[in-house]
Amino acid sequence: MKSNGLAIGLGVLGVVFLIVAALYALGVLQFLASTSGPHYKHAILFVVLAVASFVAANFARPKGTIYMTDPRR
Fold first, then answer.
1. Residue 22: which H helix or E strand, with range?
2. Deepest of 1, 23, 44, 67, by most Cβ within 10 A of its Cβ?
3. Neighbours of 17 (CB within 10 A)
4. What CA–CA distance (Å, rounded) separates 72 from 56?
5. Which tops the pLDDT comparison, 31 or 58?
6. Gap between the Cα atoms of 20 and 51, Å rounded
7. How much is the pLDDT for 38?
8. What pTM did the predictor assign?
9. How far apart are CA 21 and CA 15, in angstroms?
10. Calpha distance 16→53 (Å, rounded)
11. How many CB atoms lie within 10 A of CB 50?
12. Which residues are CB-contacts of 47 (< 8 A; sequence separation ≥ 6)?
């Protein structure tokens, strides 16, 4: 199933994951963490989730744009 809405949603989710990763890396976010300070493992996890979301968004977007230079179908 390919749609622009799904691709945009996955792209937005990837941006949210990047923001959460930055907050964990800076030590601002402490959700589900046992100690205070920066949590680099959590940050890496959210970066990986962001990359996976962007890859999924690329697969979810519709392809096959017709250009003026393409021969008629």
1. helix 4-26
2. 23
3. 20
4. 31
5. 58
6. 13
7. 84
8. 0.79
9. 10
10. 10
11. 20
12. 17, 18, 21
